[in-house]
Amino acid sequence: MEKGECILYPCxxxxxLSRDEGRRxxxxxxxxxxxxxDIERALKRLGIACQAEEHHHPAYWARHExxxxxxxxxxxxxxxxxxARNMEVKR
Length: 91
What we know:
Strands 1-3-2 form a three-stranded antiparallel sheet, covered by helices on one side. Helices cover 24% and strands 14% of the residues. The protein is of the alpha+beta class. The protein has a single domain (5-86), classed as Phenylalanyl-tRNA Synthetase, Chain B, domain 1 (2-Layer Sandwich). The chain has helices spanning 36-46, 76-86; strands at residues 5-8, 50-53, 67-71.
């Protein structure tokens, strides 16, 4: 990973997971069953360059949900909240 890149996994936005299970946003901002494509769409709406990859979260190696690498120089937590606010509502 290069400087200025953030890796985002679907579990960060999954409202059905607990914080201990990997959710990084409040349940009110989370969505049901998010995928890498949902994250990618939200990033594109924000005008942030990104690329989807076929990797998995280390804690969920059996799930093949993918991940998205975003070019972002700010704090990762700020990016996660921006993406969560711009994801299509599946709450």
